[in-house]
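Worked problem 6 (solution included).
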Amino acid sequence: MPTFEIICLAKSNKHGGTCIAGIKTDGSGWLRPVSNKRDGTLYPEHYTLDDGSEPQIFDVIRIPCFKPDPRCHQPENWLIKHNQLWENLGNPTLTQARKLLNPEIKKQSSSAELLGSLDKEVSYEELKKSPLLSSLALVKPNKLQWQIKSKGNYPNEKKFRSLFFLGEHKYDLPITDPIWIDKLKYFEEGIYSCEEVIEELELEGFEPDKFTLTISLGEPFQPLGQEKEFCYKLVAAVINVADVKKRFEWN
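Solution. The predicted structure is:
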């Protein structure tokens, strides 16, 4: 039974459950643990840790897996070993985090392309013909902003999006990070800078130019009025590096 240790870099909303992903501590890349439920969605029964807690961003987690379960849109998927508790191994050291994450951030942020293209979505039909090499990325965005919009005919419900640049290309992606959504829900409709969000929410330890985003490709979805399915790029985690360093007392 293969067992992997990851630094958790995404814990996001997915079809009423959760999607978790991280970079393996052995340096061999990303891992997305999935269940045998619909679309691999995880629930507390799957990811509750041996100490009774739930995985958080930057936890080091040991995950028993059963077998690889790569999909054309998500090649990093591994089917988890059911009825086997995940282990909480604490947090990485600053040296370990830098060694594992800095090359990924540099690689993914050096090009305007995100997960192989400049688009916000990828045709599922095309993915079946030419599977992705990666469906996860850690990027340092430029000119980052946050957008809050109402949901069409539901003015009391909101949508949350991240606006940013990689190179000269602008992205406009939905946010599925529940912790960051919980922070943004207090804002009225509009577009806000990082400085405005930090100041309004009094986020101590946060710095406006220290945000890193985990990007993930979602499950196939057929938009209303469309004949084809698409997989959309999502902001699966919002990480402020200054906040992380302060919380873990990394100097």
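Discussion: The two ends are 37 Å apart (CA to CA).
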